[in-house]
Each structure stands twice: as structure tokens, then as C-alpha cells.
Amino acid sequence: MYLILTAGVTAAKSAVDFESAFAGVKKTVDATDEEFAQMSKTTLDMSTKLATSAEEIARVEEVAGQLGIAKGDIVNFSEVMIKLGMSTGRELGKLLDS
Predict the structure, then answer these.
(1) CA distance to 26, 38, 47, 58, per residue, from 92 (Å)
(2) Alpha-carbon distance 54 to 41, whole Å?
(3) How far is CA 8 from CA 1, 22, 41, 47, in A?
(4) What is the pTM of this model?
């Protein structure tokens, strides 16, 4: 029972963390609610294919918005940046904070 409760709490925290990170995307990207919904779904899907959390991907997307990357290119840009970080062994969070 405890294990199930712990898993539920962890899942809820992950969802809150992602929503918080994705709020940053919404601040930097000019998109419709439908476009944000699609971007959110794509981000969550990408997090299951790459060894990167959805929160980290959202951080990259937020920076992409700050850089003026076209909204239609943000997801692909973010995937390339994450793969670049993985291939070079550089932690993306540290790169984004510098």
C-alpha cells in the first residue's frame, strides 16, 4: 500500500513540476491554446524517448522562445539541443544557466 501511495505522490509531483516548467514556455512563446496543448503533448512524448525529463525539455523550449525561435521549430530545436548535450556529455541545465 505504501509503495502505491509513494508512486502516486511522485507522479503528482512530476506533473506539477512539468506544469511549472511549461509555464515558462507560455511566457516566452506566442502560441494559441491548441498549439500549447500540442507542444505539451509532444514534450511529454519526447521525454519518454530521450533520457531527459519533460521539465528539462520545457526549460530548453523556454530558452528557444527567448531566442526567438519560430514556434513551429521550437520542439525540433529543443530535441536537437538535448541530443547535442547528450552527445557531448554536457549537462543542459548548466548550459542554460550560464
Answers:
(1) 20, 23, 14, 12
(2) 10
(3) 11, 21, 21, 19
(4) 0.78
